[in-house]
Amino acid sequence: MFSAIFVSLAILAGSVTARPLARATADVPTDTQVLNYALTLEHLENAFYAEALSKFSRQNFKDAGLPDFAYGRFLEIMRHEKTHVDFLTTALGENATKPCTYSFPITDPKSFVTISRSLETVGTSAYVGASKFIQNKDYLLAAATILTTEARQSAWIDSAVRKSSAWSGPFETPLDMNQVFSIASGFITSCPSSNPPLPVKAFPALKAASGATAAPGKSFKLDFARPADASTKLYGAFLSGQNALIVPVGADGSVSVPSELRGTVYLLLTSDANGVSDSSTVAGPLMLEFPYDSFGNLITLPF
């Protein structure tokens, strides 16, 4: 059997349309804006690890059934994130954005691990998506070295700690700046007014309806704010690797999950049946996980 994990921190039969993830961007951010965007995410990760690992001990991890080595490795990841913050802050100098105030739903070591893998996975997709905007080759190289570390951390959490696949396919899923900020904003309660403005916005939230569970080959109901124009036709865009699998959304807000999806998938609601763009995004992303074994079979994880 299998499970679907939702992070945010009536059945409709419809065709699936696969579209490449090509996104037009009207306003190209500057290198300083991209680095501050990255620093915003690194501040969030740094605060998350500092808060969580001050709450839990190595013994707490062992008592929760986590591998004995896990606590020490998470301490390493915490130091990595602090180093990333220091590096980007130095590179930006007086233009560097400051940390915000955050709220993380951490209740125990296992909830910490679940949120950690989500942050590392989204962080990887964030660097992939933003890399195309970086003009300075030295900055691009620096971003690439952080990207690969984020990817290694995400893979380690999924495979060594959670006993799932270390990847979701042959290609990482790129997320654009608004998509990433929409996820990150769920953990941010306030930011210093002196912080330089970022060219980002958060889309309306997208959640699974109460009691709904997503699974490949099945339909599930969504919870979101309807567009002002009730006649707007909506589609679900499942982002996986370099493609968006687009399916119609039912009148009751239900969507069919393509049966071939595996691993981490991001779901957006869009008004465009032909592709994904910020201008057509209605809500999301909703981060979904469809764990699978080494033979591609869907599985249930311990947590």
Automatic annotation (TrEMBL):
This is Uncharacterized protein. It comes from the Eukaryota. It comes from Heterobasidion irregulare (strain TC 32-1). Residues 1-18 form the signal peptide. The keyword Phosphoprotein does not apply. Keywords: Signal. InterPro entries: Ferritin-like_SF, Pigment-catalase-like.
